[in-house]
From TrEMBL, chain A:
One of its GO terms (cellular component) is GATOR1 complex. It holds the Pfam family NPR2. Signal peptide: none annotated. It comes from the Eukaryota. This is NPR2 like, GATOR1 complex subunit. GO terms for biological process: negative regulation of TORC1 signaling; positive regulation of autophagy. GO terms for molecular function: GTPase activator activity. Belongs to the NPR2 family.
TrEMBL record, chain B:
It comes from Haplochromis burtoni (Burton's mouthbrooder). Residues 477-508 have a biased composition (Polar residues). The keyword Transferase does not apply. Keywords: Lysosome, Signal. GO terms for cellular component: GATOR1 complex; lysosome. This is GATOR complex protein NPRL3. The lineage of its organism: Eukaryota, Metazoa, Chordata, Craniata, Vertebrata. Its main location: other. As a component of the GATOR1 complex functions as an inhibitor of the amino acid-sensing branch of the TORC1 pathway.
Amino acid sequence: MSTLLEDLNATGACTLPIDESNTIHLKLIQLRKDPPIVQEYDVPVFTQCKDHFIKSQWDLTTQQILPYIDGFRHIQKISAEADVELNLVRIAVQNLLYYGVVTLVSIFQYSNVYCTTPKVQSLIDDKSIQEECLNYVTKQGQKRASLRDVFQLYCGLSPGTTVRDLCSRYSQQLQRVDERRLIQFGLMKCLIRRLQKYPVKVIRDERSRPPRLYTGCHSYDEICCKTGITYQELDERLENDPNIVVCWK
Amino acid sequence: MMLNPSVGLPDDRKSLYPQSQSSAYKCGDKTSPISVILVSSGSRGNKLLFRYPYQKVAECPSSLSAKQRNPYVLNTSGDELDDQDGDSREQSPLTDEQLVAGFSDIVLSTILATKSDMCGKKFELKIDNVRFVGHPTLLQHPPIIQVSKTDPSPKREMPTMILFNVVFALRANADPSVISCMHNLSRRIAIALQHEERRCQYLTREAKLMLAVQEEITTTETDGSPQSPFRQILPKCKLARDLKEAYDSLCTTGVVRLHINDWLEVSFCLPHKIHRIGDTYIPPEALERSLKAIRPYHALLLLENEKTLLSQLPLDCSPALIRLIKTCSAVKNLQQLAQDADLALLQIFQIAAHLVYWGKAIIIYPLCENNVYMLSPHANICLYSPLAEQFARQFPGHDLPSMLAKFSLPVSLAEFRNPLEAPTQEAQLIQMVVWMLQRRLLIQLHTYVCLLVPPSEDEPGLRDEDPPLAARVGGRSLSTPSALSFGSPTSSDDMTLTSPSMENSSAELLTGGDSPLNKRMTETLLASLSEHERQFILNIPAAQNPEDLRMFARLLHYFRGHHHLEEIMYNENMRRSQLKTLFDKFRSVLVVTNHEDPIISIFQSPMD
C-alpha cells in the first residue's frame, strides 16, 4: 500500500507485483476538458517544438499528417496535401488538441483583421511571455526585436485595419519582425483575436429561397472553404448586393 | 463526457468524442442533479422517505438496446451496480436515472442516513459515477408529551426521528463549485425543516405520511406490476412536492423558491445555470473576483423590467433593495445611485453584487455619448435566432442583424446622432443599445495606455535589464472597499464618496505656477524611471512645457496598461480632451490600444 501511495504521488504511475505471475500497473490519468470540434478552416499549430515528440508513439494517421502541420495550413489543405480523408484529419487533430500538443488559430491572409484583447497587457507584465514572444517573432538571422516595436505592432491591430495596412504603416517596426509569426503568436497566446466577417441576408422577397449560408452563422472563412471561391470573389459578390449586410465579430 | 455541437452543424460531423445526439437517453449536463433523496434515521432505524425521480415501472429492456446507440459511449452494464432487489438488467448504456436507480431504497437509506456525529457538516460520498452531497441534520427531541394522570391507557412510545438528510445525487465529475452550491441548498432546506419541526413537528408528520403510503403500496402490490410508492406520495405530501419542485427548478432555470410548510421561504440560485452565455457558464469564482473589482464609476444595468423584478421580491425584503431598483438606471453610476437612493456606497456595492449574483443585473460603464461599442465575439447574429424575433417585436420596423452590422466597427453613440432626425429616434436608439447590452450582444471598448520608451541603441545591455514599468511603479492599488463578499456584513464604513485617496491626488500638486515645490514633486515622480527613460522623456518637445510635464509625471503610474481613460478621468477629475491631448503630445513614449475592460468583460464573455 505504501508503494501505491508514494509512487502515485511521485510519478503518477506505479507497478505492483502481487504474486509470481500477476502484476498490476496503475496510472493516474489527467482529466482534461473536452476539446472543441475542429473545422476544416481551422489551422493547427504546435504549442511546443515539433521535434520533442517521438513520432512512432502516435497513430498512423497522425504520423502522416504531422509534417504538414506548420501553423499555416488549414485542415482542408492538410487533408489534400497529405492525402488523408478530411474527417480523419479532423479527428486526429482533435486528439492532438485534447492533449495540448497543438492549438487552433485561423487562416492567415493579409486581408485579415485582428484586434487586441485585454491579455495583450501580459506582454508588458509577464517577463516569460515577453521572452517567448520576442524569440518567436524575430526574423531569422536578425537581432532580437525590441519589446516596444512588437507591442506597438500588436496595438496597431484594430478593427478596420488589415494586416496589409499594418505592414505599410509600421514598416519600420517590421524590419526585424516576421508578421506571420507575430500574428500566429498573438493568436496562440490570445493576445489578439481575429475578427471574422459574417454575411446576413436581411431583405429578401417572399418568393426566393431562404438563405442557406448567408444567415449570420457562417463566416467568410467557412463559406470560402465550403464553396471553394476565394475571399476576394466572395467580397465582390456580396458588396454589390444591397440585401446583404456584413457583421464583424 | 458529452460535447455540445455548435449551432448550425449538419449531422454528418464526426468526432472522436461522444456528442449529445438526439438519442433516447437523457444525458443531463454536469450542473443538474440526477436525483433528490430524503432519508431519516430514528428509533425505527434508517428509512428512505422520498426520492425523485422515482424508478419508473421497468420497461421491456430489449427495446432499449434496439434504439440508436452512440458507438463511442462506454458500455457499462447494469450488472455491476449493487442491486439488492434482484431485478435482472439487460446490457444497455445507462441514463442518469438508472445510475441512481441502481441503488435500491434500502441501500440508499443505509448509506445516506449517517450517524449523529456526522451531523451539521457537509456530507459527500462518491460511488462509481454518482456523487451524493447533503447536510445531515440532528433533530431536537420533541417535548415530552404530558399524559393525563387519569388516563389509564399505557403510554405509547412515539417513534422519534433523530436525524434526517436531504441529499442531492450529482454526476461524479461535477465541478467542485457545483457540489458546494448543492450542499448549500441542502443545508438551507435542512435549516428550514429543523425549524418547522421544532415549531410544529412538521417533518415528523410528513415522514409519517410518506412511510404510511410506502407500507400501503407494498402490502397491496399485485405480482408482476410493482408500483412506485413515491408517485402516490406526491399528491399527499407537501414536502415531497417541494423536493420535486427543487429538483425540477435546478434542472431547468437554476432558481429555487420553496415555501416549506407554506410558511418558511427557502430561496436559492445556481450561478452555473443563471450566468450562461451559449453553452458555457461563468464560474462563480470568476464572478466573485469581478464583483470585488467594481468601482464607483461603474453602473448597474437591470436585466429585467423594473416592475417584473419588484414583483419577484418577497414581501419582507429590504427596503434598500426596493429603493435601489427604483432609482437605478443605465446612465447613472454607482456613486450617483448612492446619492439618489440615499444609501451608503458600500451598501450599494453589496446590493449590486447581490443582484448580479442572482442574474438580475450586470455591471456596465454608464451610458454616455462618448462610449464606444462593438459587437461581442460571442453575440448570436443569426438571422433566425430567438433574439432577432424578440428585437423585431420590441422595435417594429428594425431588424437585429442590420442594427448589429452598425456595430461591426467600434462606433461611439455620438456618431449616431443626426441633428435632422427627431429626438424620439435618438431615444429609441438608446433603448436599442440598452436592449443589446442586456442580451450581451455588445461590448464596450476603452482606451488603455502604456509607457514604453524606445530602447537606446548604444546600450543594449541596460535595455534588457530594465524591469517593465509595471514592476517598478507598483503598489498603488485603487480598489473598492475590500470587505465586499457575498452575503457577509462588513464593518468598514469609511468608504468615501470621492475618489480613493492616493499619494499624489490632484489637490496636492498646484496647477498654476512653476514653484520649486512642484518641480521637486515632478522630479520625485520621474525618479522611478531609469536614467535613460527620464532623459528621453525630458527631451520630448512637449516636456519643455512644465505644466504638461507635471501632468505627465502625475499620471505616470496609470501608464501600465491597466487603467483606462475613463478611470483616469474619474480619479483625477480631468476632461477627456485634456487627456487625449496629453497622450498625443507624448506619443513617442506612449503606446495606446483599445480593448474591453477585463473586469466587467466577464459579463459578456465566459472564461476561455
